[in-house]
Design brief:
By secondary structure, the chain is mainly α. The chain contains 17 helices and no strands. Helix 2 runs antiparallel to helix 3 and helix 5 crosses helix 14. It is globular and about 60 Å long.
Length: about 425
Amino acid sequence: MRPRIAMTVCYALTGAVSALWASALPATDARLSLGPGRLGVVLTAMAVGGLCAMPVAGRLADRYTGSLLLRATAPAAALALVAPAAATSFATLLPAAVLIGILLGALNVALSVQAVALEGALRRPIISVLHGAWSLGAVVGGAGVTSSLHAGVGVRVVTLVAAPVLAAALLLSAAGSEPAPAGTAIQDASPVISVPVEDGARRAGSTAPGVRLTVLLGLVGAAAFVAEGAATDWAGVHATRVLGADPAVGSLVYTVFFTTMTAVRLAGDALRGRLGAAATLRAGGLVAAGGYGLVLLAGAVPGTVAVKVGCALGGWVMVGAGMAVVWPIVLGTLSAGGGSAARLSVVTTISYSGGLVGPALIGALAAALTLPLALSAPAVLALAVAFVAPRLLAAAVTGRPSGRTGSDTPSRGGGLAAVPLNGR
């Protein structure tokens, strides 16, 4: 199996693993009579496990390679889903959630490390498509669980059957994910740059991002995940509580947002290759900020509920389209800068923490103020992505706070970082 295809399959299967865990939660909640309080503790324990595992996974990837880490964590994460299915109480579910969090956190780092290595080897953008594959896997996995439950198959049976199948498929695909070295031709790479990415970046004056830039890149990712999490967790609530829509319409808003994000991620690499990373990031931030503007205006639009919801729906589509490209571009920047797996894991930890903490902070702001006012916070973050993040990308690739790089300039080489076509 070619590395690019193997990684695409890995991402899609990981999305299915995450969907199997998430879509089974309501049934697990009912089976164990957890209630909102204890379910919240379970989810928090899972998140803490994941955030603690990510920095450790980065160091392990540096020591043993990302390929080995992926081959270890991918099937293990799938098999770990058996633990909550076998749990008989809150006390036994809690450690199972921590275990899943640790393995999924390490798996996310392994996937990112391998995606960065593969993009460097192919010398063209691929990371956005990989994340699009994850989204498709999540959609298919969630739909499969829902269909099984409607057919009368219990969630424990679904998990006990699906987990080993997913583990075996992940083991096979992870085994084929190791890319050739950056200077080695890959059959489907169609390379157009005559020097390895690392050498070209070094000749352009590039160094791996320092600690400060690493943290700032993580904050860019966190801003994107806060804006994304605000949509996935609060778009439906905004439609029902603020605009007066019924729950079915609220669910539709979420579905449209997620579908838009998936579609743009599948096209995101081509867009980055044509415009360059910085221009794509700037456009994405502006589109998302404009989308939040429509959402905030929806409640004041005169007319029926349908008109108000239509305005908000257009805004959420823009948010999904704009934020879809941010995290793949952050990873691509790390690929161009030649950072270590440990440094990448730091960026991943900071970024994912935004997705975990952001929606809860928006809820707190909504309780203290109003939900529309609370949603102005991710709008500001989207503007920050548009105006601040491109300069950070330039600094991360060139080691200078400003100036044009290959990330700013579209090239036939796919818009990767500072690698002039003539090799200088």
